């Protein structure tokens, strides 16, 4: 019998939008504590908290001033300790977000750099302009903005891979590394069990700072972002992952400790699965997640492609929605089929808050949107803010049970639809999360996988040698040649019966 480590089911909490307890209109740590019973009842193994650190919130908390301190808008150190204690009491591990690629431009380091402190400037990437005043090279930001921003005080450009308010950190710098290691140790000492590493594939650039070559059509199709995002026009040879990019995470492992659960976000669409494999060899991260599944709403072809390219699904976290990716909920049977398919895929599974109610992607008016990326690309952006609309705990209440004040985003929910999702889906999620663990699908190996049009047919062998077959029809009606005998489970929650979506699993 193998001793393969269980692959966790991880519930992602976007704290700003989870539960407000003060009437501020913004979620807080006490709110998470209040709602942890709901999370634990789903049977997940862990929660991942999106950033709660001090931040001007220009990029939704992913622009951090101080990684060691909790933003007062979320609560106090005591609230955090109470949250960790409550989570552990319920058997939930706590994973924190680590945004190491950049800081906020409000961070004391960056402000000191602007004020002329060269030692602090070396924590980032500052360069003189070319003689004609233009930036040092052709690098762009992943958000489709120029990669270089001019600062007249230093008379230099600095580099940022996302917003100009998120200057990229020089992660090769020993002082930067020492700082990161210390704050990570600090969170571990406070009981944190693991970390999610933001944009872990973006950390390093080539010191030669050469121009990136243009994309070939094949590369452009794979670089993350819409094809009209200029970022996809380049092959990111020099600004991302040169040489030791994947090996760098061995440092993260050393700083976090062998017993920490570590997973990372791959924003490099090019060679996504192959890169995920490089980042998860022994001594590196436990898992990496890519955008292949969410960008294709878990289509049979995307699952089969992932399985064909991955050495093992144990090292790839499956997911469909997040604070960055529009919610995949629809008012039909597809929710349950997709959830069952995700539960059946071996490896870790990340569930985004509210997905267990089949919440749909709400429509927001442009004047309500605060996310700079959505506004920049309006109306064709990723719809990040829609997926961040706060949780409708009580669909009949004023403020939907999220807040007694004015929510930071309007709660654009259809009350009846939310109520139906709450009545039917959460129970189904709890059931399949339990089955995934009890039947050993999470640690199983894939022995066969076939994607035929809109039908996915997967066979697993679990660590104790039993064989399971899952067949998932994405709107193509009931598949032919199903195994004989009754299935162990059928995706029957919220089944309108008219969509042609079917999913079931057999002990074969
Ligand atoms: C990650 C985060 C996203 C953020 C970006 C830059 O992709 O998930 O929300 O904007 O990193 O930090």
TrEMBL record:
Residue span(s) of domain Glycosyl hydrolase family 13 catalytic: 12-388
Domain of life: Bacteria
Coiled-coil zones: none
Alphabetized GO MF terms: alpha-amylase activity
Gene Ontology terms: biological process: oligosaccharide catabolic process
Pfam families documented for this protein: Alpha-amylase
Family to which the UniProt record says this protein belongs: Belongs to the glycosyl hydrolase 13 family.
Name of the protein this chain belongs to: Alpha-glucosidase
Protein source organism: Loktanella fryxellensis
